[in-house]
Design brief:
By secondary structure, the protein is of the alpha/beta class. The protein has a single domain, classed as Rossmann fold, CATH 3.40.50. Helices cover 45% and strands 14% of the residues. The strands form two sheets. A four-stranded parallel beta sheet has the order 4-5-6-7, sandwiched between helices. It has a three-stranded parallel beta sheet with strand order 1-2-3, covered by helices on one side. Helix 2 links the parallel strand 2 and strand 3. The chain starts with a strand and ends in a 7-residue tail after the last strand.
Length: 244
């Protein structure tokens, strides 16, 4: 199951899983036609993408969505918590609504999806599971004008560690990926600003923006047996941004 799979990083993860031979329950709040079309071109499996509409807000409990998907489609072997939103304002002007909306999607829904997934895995004899959450460079750095986003992504990295400590011995791997600057709709304004684009590229040792497939390939690794002894890690996929 990949949340936010209709576009951007979530779509890149879904397509990478399909390319590796998997099937994806693609969760999103808008149509999944583009993801489904691209997935069909990559896979020999019939209908490798199963779209699931969900907004993951407080009015649509995440655990209910996961339970319904599990019952309808059989055991889910991996969960990718990718869905997220961002709100921008100076800290002095930040509103409670902008705080709550971001924390609800980015952190609260991620926890309760992970909880629902772990409960179902532990109810299934001999089952194991992989959870991958999408953190951020702002899990490590402060940033500016994104108070709730920074708090949520810092919290997500801490939550990854806590869940790993509790669930590793139960056969559930919990890890995270921290993307750097990735070519998505969310970064289009930055890439279109010549000065800001040059500043960002000047900080990235690899000298390029990342692509959603870069995150997708890392997610496949964390969902695969190759990462079976990894627990509680947050892997930066940032072109070297944090190293500079």
């Amino acid at each position: 199951m990949v949340t936010g799979a209709n576009t951007g990083i979530g779509q890149g993860i879904a397509l990478a899983v399909v390319r590796a031979g998997g099937r994806v329950l693609a969760v999103g709040r808008s149509d999944m036609d583009d993801t489904s079309r691209k997935a069909a071109a990559l896979s020999r499996i019939e209908a490798p993408i199963t779209p699931i509409f969900a907004d993951l807000d407080p009015y649509m409990p995440p655990h209910a969505m996961l339970d319904a998907a599990w019952d309808a489609h059989g055991p889910i072997h991996g969960l990718v918590n990718n869905a997220g939103i961002i709100r921008r304002a100076d800290a002095l002007d930040f509103t409670e609504n902008d705080w709550d909306s971001v924390m609800d999607i980015n952190l609260k829904s991620a926890f309760f999806l992970a909880q629902a997934f772990a409960r179902r895995v532990l109810q299934t004899p001999d089952a194991k599971g992989k959870i991958v959450s999408i953190a951020s460079m702002l899990s490590f750095q402060g940033g500016i004008r994104v108070a709730s986003y920074t708090a949520s992504k810092s919290g997500l990295m801490g939550l990854t560690r806590l869940l790993a400590c509790e669930w590793a011995e139960k056969g559930i791997n919990v890890n995270a990926i921290a993307p750097g600057y990735i070519e998505t709709n969310n970064t289009e304004a930055l890439r279109s600003d010549p000065d800001r684009n040059a500043q960002i590229l000047g900080r990235i040792p690899a000298g390029r923006w990342g692509e959603p497939s870069d995150i997708g390939d890392a997610a496949v690794f964390l969902l695969a047996p190759a990462s079976d002894h990894m627990h509680g890690a947050t892997i930066p996929v940032d072109g070297g941004w944090l190293a500079r």
